[in-house]
Specification:
The protein has 379 residues and is an alpha/beta fold. The chain has 9 helices and 23 strands.
Length: 379
């Protein structure tokens, strides 16, 4: 069992990493971290002493005063190193740096100097250190106007705002899930007896997409038109586009958007309802559920899924992992409607009526029991 602690656990990358590590409780134990540990040496020392691995993500990315960014980031690293020295602990430390190290700005300077500070500690104490040079990161739940231009565009397009492009440059992007996979691989290499000696290394995290800012906005605009306004699942040219779409979906105001009612086409024969228009392929299935029975109570990290109630009365519930707010949606076959399942939201559907519930399910990939991307957790 590898004990892993993450400074900046509550941030964009930190929360994604924390949640992903939690998917394998048989391999990893998460050591909780809170922001105020940096304000209390005893708490920080206890945290450091408890970890086999520390991923240092805590940092300031933006501020009106660049000097504040520089000093804050240097102070956080210094406090971590001082705690390592006080406790004599020698965890494998992974440091989140940036491709901005080589740029002439104080943020990049703080990252470069912070990396070297921890690297020197590791060399002096025969400890393992990995300095990660990370490109621009995007993904669900990033903070708009702070984490990335993708987060800002997604928020604006789902909240009736108009994005603008300051500079139409080409940027190199890595999806947060891909970054986390790299981090976990490094943890396993350095803590799974793959190597026997302690080491220090600088790791360039590869970007997975090189794209102009205007091209990102064009894709997101198409998601707004097709998906948010028309309910169409767009096609994806590659994995990047699927990840961008799931990122976009995470900014939708779920409580006000769902359930989305279908448009029935009725005549003397009955009615006809178009359930899903898609460009993305996948698999369609249906279920019947007897009264008072609940299905689901699980979440996905990549799959796109739609629940369409066509007969009976249903309660669909959603809750974002590691939060307490539950979103409740009542759907009825008398007014067919759907709710799409966001990634990292555990969800269920319950028959709350007196007759069988009929539900049509669509998911964007075939079911694979060896890679089901399904994690059980009660809403």
């Amino acid at each position: 069992m590898i004990k892993i602690g993450i400074t900046g656990q509550e941030g964009f990358v930190g929360s994604y990493l924390y949640n992903t590590i939690g998917l394998q409780p048989e391999k990893y134990e998460r050591v909780p971290f809170k922001r105020d540990f940096f304000q209390d040496a005893a708490l920080l020392d206890s945290f450091v002493s408890s970890c086999d691995v520390i991923i240092h993500l805590a940092a300031m990315n933006r501020h009106t005063d660049q000097e504040v960014i520089y000093q804050t980031n240097k102070d956080l690293v210094s406090q971590l190193v001082e705690s390592l020295k006080r406790t004599g602990a020698k965890p494998h430390v992974l440091f989140s740096s940036s491709t901005q190290e080589e740029r002439d700005n104080l943020y990049g300077k703080s990252k470069r100097e912070g990396r070297l500070l921890i690297e020197n500690w590791a060399k002096e104490n025969n400890a393992s250190f990995s300095g990660l040079i990370i490109p621009n990161v995007f993904g669900p739940f990033g903070k708009p106007f702070y984490n990335s231009v993708v987060a800002t565009f997604c928020y604006q397009l789902t909240h009736n705002q108009t994005p603008t492009i300051d500079q139409d440059s080409v940027i190199k992007l890595v999806y947060v899930g891909e970054l986390v996979d790299h981090v976990i691989k490094l943890i396993e290499i350095n803590n799974g007896n793959v190597i026997s000696s302690k080491s220090t290394e600088v790791v360039d995290i590869p970007h997975s997409k090189e794209i102009k800012v205007s091209q990102i906005l064009d894709l997101l605009d198409s998601y707004k038109e097709k998906y948010l306004e028309k309910g169409i699942i767009p096609g994806f040219g590659d994995v990047f586009e699927r990840n961008l779409f799931n990122t976009y979906r995470s900014y939708i105001d779920l409580g006000n958007h769902y359930p989305v009612k279908y448009t029935p086409h009725s005549d003397n024969r009955g009615s006809f309802v178009e359930i899903i228009k898609l460009e993305a392929g996948g698999q369609v299935s249906f279920s019947t559920t007897v009264p008072d029975i609940t299905r689901g109570n699980h979440y996905h990290t990549r799959k796109i899924e739609r629940f369409s109630v066509i007969k009976g009365e249903a309660l669909i519930q959603l809750r974002k992992v590691n939060t307490t707010e539950i979103l409740n949606f009542n759907l009825s076959g008398s007014e067919p409607s759907f709710v799409d399942m966001p990634i990292w939201y555990t969800h269920n559907i319950k028959n709350v009526g007196k007759e069988d519930l009929y539900t049509v399910f669509w998911i964007n990939e075939f079911f694979d029991p060896q890679d089901a991307d399904t994690y059980f957790e009660t809403v």
